[in-house]
């Protein structure tokens, strides 16, 4: 780590949540009646044909007018605040396939969908499957537990709400640049600790020829630009491997500080999901969290979000350690969890995406 890199980050992506809470129009786009009509037409065209959701491309899903808006949103994600909320997708009158078509089609205008798990799911379902997130191979999104501030291993992450919880499930996001700057001011020595390699558990999703763990710093610099990757649970779980170096007290002190800064109400922005909302985040510049939630007892009313991980050529340059974790797409961006011999799929059923994936619950295709 060069000392020259340890200087404050500047730019639009460095912000404080309470300031943005008063300027919701800066980060929200609500679909107009014309936008919805265009989206409905595109969904109908695909739904009427024998297309897999995975086959949808920007060319097959033209969105006159709305497509231009999505181009501007893509610029905002890379050069602006680093996040956007799109509101008004008419999910209440779409069945599960139509909702997936609409979401995947919008995503195709922003990037390339990549695998979110060892099963090759390019379309994910964020639901409570009753899993214990403390288990080594568990994924937090498959529970109703609180999720601490973290990043996902992709350029962009999108969440579209189909149904919200009975209570809870509030999303919070924070600028990684703001967290870095605050930490640099308070404890530059601990910033240096987080620029060093930290070992993380692959949680059983192991590419051919790789170890069950990988190394990646939290704060990474490439061409002088900062990108952040932080998931404390994978760092802690990697301690189960004897050949992974033991965490030091100083490293754990750094983890505690970054989390204390991220959870400062003066820094983070809270937002709630309503059905039809799409939250888009640039993972390199934004950390996100979620409160615990309580579901309705009826399966058809339970909280259900669809998730996309998108690789985009517009993304920032990435340090080489990113590719110890993931391979590259054809355009040189991280390709998620795609394993050798596994084909991408876009399931319309809610599945356990971990090793030995099996169907857990069937989404009701007739639900309107």
Structural class: alpha+beta
Roughly how many Å apart are the termini?
A: 54 Å
What is the C-alpha radius of gyration, as a whole number of Å? 20 Å
At CATH level 3, the topology is Double-stranded beta-helix
Residue ranges: pLDDT <50 for 5 or more in a row?
353-368
Instruction: Provide the CATH superfamily.
Output: Clavaminate synthase-like
Mean of pLDDT: 89
Largest sheet: 7 strands, mixed
What's the CATH first level? Answer: Alpha Beta
Shape: globular
CATH architecture: 4-Layer Sandwich
Q: How many domains?
A: 1
Question: Helical percent range?
Answer: 10-25%
The total count of helices amounts to 9
> Strand content of the residues, in percent?
15-25%
Spell out the helices and strands N to C: HEHHEHEEEEEEHHEEEEHHEEEEEHEE
């Amino acid at each position: 780590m060069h000392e020259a890199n340890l200087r404050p980050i500047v730019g639009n992506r460095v912000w404080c949540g309470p300031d943005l809470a008063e300027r919701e129009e800066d980060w929200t786009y609500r679909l107009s009646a014309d936008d919805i009509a265009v989206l409905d037409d595109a969904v109908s065209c695909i739904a009427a044909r024998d297309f897999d959701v995975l086959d949808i491309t920007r060319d097959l899903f033209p969105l006159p007018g709305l497509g231009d808006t999505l181009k501007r949103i893509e610029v905002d994600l890379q050069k602006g605040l680093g996040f956007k909320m799109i509101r008004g997708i008419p999910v209440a009158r779409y069945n599960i396939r139509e909702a997936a078509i609409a979401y995947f089609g919008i995503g195709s205008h922003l990037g390339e969908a990549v695998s979110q798990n060892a099963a090759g799911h390019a379309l994910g379902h964020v639901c409570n499957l009753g899993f214990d997130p403390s288990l080594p191979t568990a994924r937090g999104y498959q529970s109703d537990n609180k999720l601490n501030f973290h990043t996902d291993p992709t350029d962009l992450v999108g969440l579209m709400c189909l149904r919200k919880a009975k209570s809870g499930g509030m999303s919070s996001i924070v600028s990684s640049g703001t967290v870095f700057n605050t930490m640099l001011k308070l404890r530059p020595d601990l910033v240096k600790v987080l620029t060093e390699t930290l070992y993380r558990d692959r949680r059983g999703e192991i590419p051919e020829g790789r170890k069950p763990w990988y190394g990646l710093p939290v704060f990474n610099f490439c061409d002088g630009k900062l990108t952040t990757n932080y998931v404390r649970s994978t760092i802690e779980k990697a301690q189960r491997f004897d050949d992974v170096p033991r965490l030091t007290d100083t490293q754990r002190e750094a983890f505690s500080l970054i989390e204390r800064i991220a959870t400062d109400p003066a820094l983070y922005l809270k937002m709630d999901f309503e059905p039809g909302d799409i939250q888009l985040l640039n993972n390199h510049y934004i950390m996100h969290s979620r409160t615990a939630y309580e579901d309705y007892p009826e399966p058809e009313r339970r909280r259900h979000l669809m998730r996309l991980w998108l690789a985009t050529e517009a993304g920032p340059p990435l340090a080489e350690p990113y590719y110890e974790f993931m391979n590259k797409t054809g355009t040189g961006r991280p390709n998620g969890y795609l394993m050798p011999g596994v084909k991408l799929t876009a399931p319309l059923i809610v599945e356990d995406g971990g090793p030995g994936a099996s169907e857990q619950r069937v989404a009701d295709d007739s639900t309107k």
